[in-house]
User: What shape does this take?
Amino acid sequence: MEIFINYLMESSIILGILTLFYRFVLHHEPLFKFNRFYLLFSLLLATVAPFIHISLSSGDSETTGFVLLETVNVFSGDVRETVVPVIKENKSFTWIYGMGAIGLLVRLLLGIVRLGGLSKKATWVKYNGIRIADLPGKFNPFSFFHVIFINRSLYSDDDLDKILVHETAHVKYRHSLDVLLFEILLIVQWFNPFAWMIKYLLKELHEFQADRSVLQKGTSIGSYKNLLLFQATGARLLPVNNFNQSITKKRFKMMTNKTLKNKAFVKTLAATLMIVGVGFFFACDNELPSDIEGQDETLSLKSATDNNGFLLGDSSRVYFVVDSMPKFPGGDKALRKFIAQKVKYPQYAQEKGIQGRVYIRFVVDEAGYVTEVDTARGVHSSLDEEAIRVVSSMPRWRAGIHEGKPVKVSYTVPINFVLQNRGENLKQKTLKQINKLETTTIYVDGKTVSLSEFKKIPNESIKGIKSKWNGKSVDKNGEKKLLDSSGIFEVTLKEKVPKSESKDDNEVHVVSYK
Assistant: This one.
């Protein structure tokens, strides 16, 4: 569940960034083909990028086979302050999300079934190789893949020709496929307002593109506008491309809207760079530790003829895949919980702003004990040692079985150390304490400062805060109050490290489960 929640969050952020860029940069430009490509590729990127993992580590690593367990995330500070753990612990999330997704899936299926029912009532004719379902009743003409649904008796021959050209454009450009893709997206991301927005923007674009096809056939803008204005309002059927939408004014404007070639080039280039940049940023492993140790000890595994292998320097064979894999007591979920509970974020690493993903390699031997614990890829000695300590303390596993015999099996587990903004937490707690006191004295690195000066100190610059206060605690109207109270707060700032040594201390890490 944690992986899925993180996927939804990362995918939502990607979709939000790309949708907002389109809305403010490309939306009013008549670059219909490129705009459609941009919106469809945005959907593809938001769906796929969270699964892609590009490592930026400079160390050489040769891996021909190993068992990689799911990432275990370790947060400094209070884990509950992060979004993913809060959602994960909320038992109602699964029910609410599931009900929303099922509701939209049912809506989509009912729409398709409804179209099937309409097809049985239709009189079928041909128009330029496209099937037309002539139906009774008052509704807006629409298309669904290679079929156009319309009541021909409602229109003059001239208007009918324009409408059929419009709907034929929807068929030609395969707009129904776009609509279905985005309906499926909504099933997964129904909670994301940007998913609804990008679907609306795409349907707008479909109408702009179809309108251009009508005008290119020689129809005057004035007569076509009149047709749009006097269209009857009908029931909306999903998932379809309707001729009459609630965007008539925008369609009028887009019919006469033109863009300069230089402006179009700049915007298409900016949009392309935006897609590449967002995709690269979210696909990359964003940990670039300032002091990586153990680069020479990265994974070095060789493959045997049966697709298993052995660790160098070990006379006993170590497998990667066996008939019955070793099992941690309680399963993989219990394993991740054990590591997350046992790992303590080193104080030194918190103070120096060190974070990143440590890969720990270990072997479950024939008796089920964890042995040969080592760093496959490290970040910093403080994090590496803590990760090794916890993995070494694992309880006995159920041993792996291969060809009827217990054997050694190698694993690699990534442990992700993620810093919270500790300075912000300390500052907020201190300000709450100060508000309860009548008089306060604040020292910053030994110098007295005013409350306003303390508030201006950047959160990330605060290393620690010590407080001493006294007063009488009394209950007043159900609330605790301090009388005759005073306090002293000693603030310690982080040391200023030369840029060459701290280039990554302020790096923002986006947690992902690749």
The first strand starts at residue 67 and ends at 68. The CA atoms of residues 139 and 235 lie 6 Å apart. The radius of gyration is 31 Å. The chain has a mean pLDDT of 76.
